[in-house]
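Summary for the steering committee. One of the milestones for this cycle was to obtain a three-dimensional model of the protein with pyridoxal-5'-phosphate bound, which we needed before selecting residues for the alanine scan. The sequence and ligand used are listed below.
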Amino acid sequence: MSPVIELFSPTTAQRYRQVVRATVDRTADRVAHVDRPTTSTPAAELRRRVRAIDLDAAPLGTDQALAEVDDLFVSEAVWFHDPAYLAHLNCPVALPAVAAEAVLAAVNPSVDTWDQSRIGTEIERHVIDWVAGRIGFNAGDGVFTSGGSQSNLQALLLARAAMPSGTPPVVFATAESHFSVRRSAQLLGLPDDAVVDVRTDAAGRMLPAALATAITDARAAGRTPMAVVATGGTTDRGVIDPLQPIADVCDLEDVWLHVDAAYGCGLLVSPTRRHLLAGIERARSVTADFHKAFFQPVSSSALVVRDPADLRRASWHADYLNPEDAAEPNQVDKSLQTTRRFDALKLWATLRAAGADALGRAFDAVVDLAAQTHALVAAHDDLVLVAPTQLSTVLFRWQPAGMPDDEADALVGPLRAALLAEGRVLIAKTVVDGRPCNKLTLLNPETTIEHMRTSLDHVAAMAADLRASTTATTGAAR
Ligand SMILES: *Cc1c(COP(=O)(O)O)cnc(C)c1O
């Protein structure tokens, strides 16, 4: 007899216990033995293993299927908690949030209408009010979203709704701002040239005077400033646009200021660095990614607005979602999504378990580690530091003395790829000031400077190997 689908219900309470416990046990056994961010299994082999499974083949039953998940997926996972995982803005996750996620998976709430969530809506609203308070909004509002990209999209949607129609809209950002700003403009159907890159200083921060000029120029060209997007922690350099003077310009010009603090939001709880976000309370909307800087499992992000009325600017009413039942607070009116995860519970559990200061100290630790790592890179014979940071990224190139720039640039991509193929130290690459470079993003407060020394030595050794093999091949070809 083929297995039936087992559903979560009173009659399966015991099975739920067994299945989830066994699954948790396997994952715990795995993580206990992880000693590298991922494996060296070749990409083609990973694909072969997945494609070898016929999803129409005889089913395995729940227990077997989950053992297979462990064997197929968990054994090959990319582990963000590993001290040699240095690639992107991914964090190790807080245990209270992991456990809360397990509750969410089983209870399966959707925070769209009140009648689907009840106390869940109250909890999300309380967490949002707490975040708004940390930003410095007196009576803000907001909503959890799937991530910074969606938060930015919604912010720009609201900004456009607040703008008089008629003339073409302009969004002011910088070349360093997140690509989701341009992507959002495209999704909103704005003209191709709607996003203007305001000039930046040498560190990659928006120049307020250049912003003022750009706004004047746009008005002179018959266009209407729709929004200024300042970044509270750029993805590559981890630098913060000067929020106070930018807010001055926005106030004077009466333009919507959005602060994308997807990365830098950790500073909101930092016991020592909160001042780096001074002026964020003057924004009309703010993006915060808790799945980056608050050690939350994906997904966990919010869009927060200073004036609750702004959040209603783009709301849409569907009859079956009880729009006119004003006594029932419906989060769906504030969201771009309908069915929506109750991600707020994870942050709630984390705040209740460890408190905001612990989160802030953990974020401080990665910023401190980045400063130490910068010193390490600067002192390294063969590594060149490319740019400073205010947060936790490290931009560098492997370029021993005497190596021409184009040779160093050509190694950036192959170095990342070779390290990924090996699975011992994972790093990223990007382009800064027109030149490729490698990038580390530090978000693990338990990573030490000794870990960093070991990882950087490994990176440098791999680069030397690559150069040797490239030279050998080029030599042989001659
Ligand atoms: C990561 C990031 C985003 C996008 O957030 P997602 O959660 O990945 O969608 C937006 N802005 C900045 C500055 C970021 O670093």
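Key point for the committee: The longest strand covers residues 224-231.
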